[in-house]
Amino acid sequence: MTRKIIIANWKMSVNRADTTRLTRAAGVALGKCGGQADVILVSPYVYLTHVSAILPPGVILAAQDVAVPHHPKGAQTGDVSPEMLRDTGCTAVIIGHSERRSGHGETDDTVRAKVAAACAAGLTVILCVGETADQRAAGQGRNVVSGQIHAALFDQPNIRPDSVMVAYEPVWAISGGGGQTAALEDIGSIHQFLANYIETTLAPLRGMRLLYGGSVRPDNASVILSLPYVDGVLVGGASLDADALSEIIRAGCAASRP
Ligand code: PGA
Fold this sequence. Notes:
By secondary structure, the protein is an alpha/beta fold.
């Protein structure tokens, strides 16, 4: 069965009550469609334990970032290690989101180190990549994105195709970063390019899943999920509305094939 992946990235936009409401809604929506898609809820650190305690069957819990521990535990004030994430019930983590790269100066080297730390701890990595509007205008989009993937994943120990997925999120299409609508042909062609790039350059990761993110909403989720080489969607803004999230989960189930 090809199962589509629906990821809800709540960013810094929720309080505890919101996480309760959205987690329950996700569980109901997934249950109603027979659990046919993979649903991953990406909570702020402070609510991970809470969401973990009410996590519906079949729903996966993820964090929005992780630190690289210098020692298994110790003096890193403010940091959260991969082991701590696992301890809260997390089994996955977003790494390299454009809001971390641009807002916190995360470089390709930082991202690579985080991927290594997360994989070593057994967490599934959701690696975010994407070009800015300027890079796109300069015709650099594909180079930037394949370069980010290569920098993060090439020759990484402890990494398997099922322990990492790539979310292609053009920065100009993310609702907080431009919110322009990406044309379906553009999404399709870059996903095909990335699938081919992985096949030829990162052969050990052949079969790794490729997701799309950037202003995914109930009205465009089905068609995006039906594109070849699109294994799922990473949803920010629309995942904050229980009805919209439920509808996107239904679209994910409908697009999953036996
Ligand atoms: P968006 O965010 O759906 O609000 O555009 C996607 C993301 O940044 O992960």
